[in-house]
Amino acid sequence: MANIVKYVTKLDRHIELLGSAARTASPDTVELRGIPQGTRGLIVVLNATVKGDSPSVTMKIQGVDAITGATWDIISATALTDIGTRVLRVGNIATASNVAANDLVPSAVRVTCTANSADSLTYSVTAQLV
Length: 130
Description:
It is a single chain. By secondary structure, the protein is mainly β. The protein has one domain: Jelly Rolls, CATH 2.60.120. Helices cover about 0% and strands about 55% of the residues. It is built from no helices and ten strands. It has strands spanning about 5, 15-25, 30-35, 40-50, 55-65, 70-75, 85-90, 100, 110-115, 120-130. The N and C termini lie far apart (about 30 Å).
């Protein structure tokens, strides 16, 4: 699994991380770098539209140390096993387990989607900076 790096500009507010595709394995991680100072929040949306027999995918947001590349977990969603949407939020908000983290948005974040089964799930992942 590789790491795709996308550089963010002040004009980027809605960013496609993974285009809609049928997946049976974990895709490459996607790292957003250069998130502007003053960004109040980050919303990451996984939208599943077609499923196989019993798919399962878990999405996670990690902070990335720009100097060393070390990562730390900010929030992880519960597994998505059906058609639907998972939304993770990070910012100055009330904490809700597996949904929202009251945390600063670092200048670099990594989004991972881990396949927990080999059954197909068609999904896309987008991010919004607020």
